[in-house]
Amino acid sequence: MYKRILLKLSGESLMGKQNYGIDIERLNDYARQIKEVHEMGVQIGIVIGGGNIFRGLTGAGKGFDRVKGDQMGMCATVINSLALSSALDSVGVKNKVLTAIRMEPIGEFYTKWKAIEAMEEGKVCIFSAGTGSPYFTTDTGSSLRGIEIEADVMLKGTRVDGIYTADPEKDPTATKFDDITYQDVIAKNLKVMDITATAMCMQNNLPIYVFNMDIVGNLKKVMDGEPIGTLVHN
Fold first, then answer.
1. pTM score, two decimals?
2. Could you read off the pLDDT of 118-145 as tens digits, one per residue?
3. How far, rounded to the nearest angstrom, does the alpha carbon of residue 116 sit from its chain's CA centroid?
């Protein structure tokens, strides 16, 4: 079993059945699933996207300055992180929000050692504001944080149950991989994470496990070793 994980959650998934914002039901489902794994004694770091509120690249396409657009996206991840922190509080899971940009008293400024100390004390750490720099996605943010905190694996919770030869929502003939190498992901241009994030995981030997987080109970199944997703490795 993994002792320390980096859980990457999609901002879009937080919308649930809505077109925008945060679906409280989905948020609470996530909190309960995280609690289940936390009670197994697993140390948990979390990175959550901001696409349900604002996406920098989309903003840039609509005329926003790219750097300001990305900074707006970082703020969106902070909003989601605070929402998740509040949901974890309500189910009795101690947690800490760390931000990549100074934002006291909203969250503490991130350092690797602060994060590891908090996780070793039994707190769930939520890493927000991406890497703190523009031009990087929250995928890259989660690769960076996963490598820094020396996680055993990055668990990428998405809306699909793994990696397919094509987008299964668009192509009914798409077939699923049980496991795949980083090299193949890059060579086949599979949209698992952006290329920077994938390359970082490859260079630092951080395996990625892609699974469907929107099915309640799946996070614990992954921790129990049930083969419900796709493993990316060297």
1. 0.96
2. 999 999 999 999 999 999 999 999 999 9
3. 18
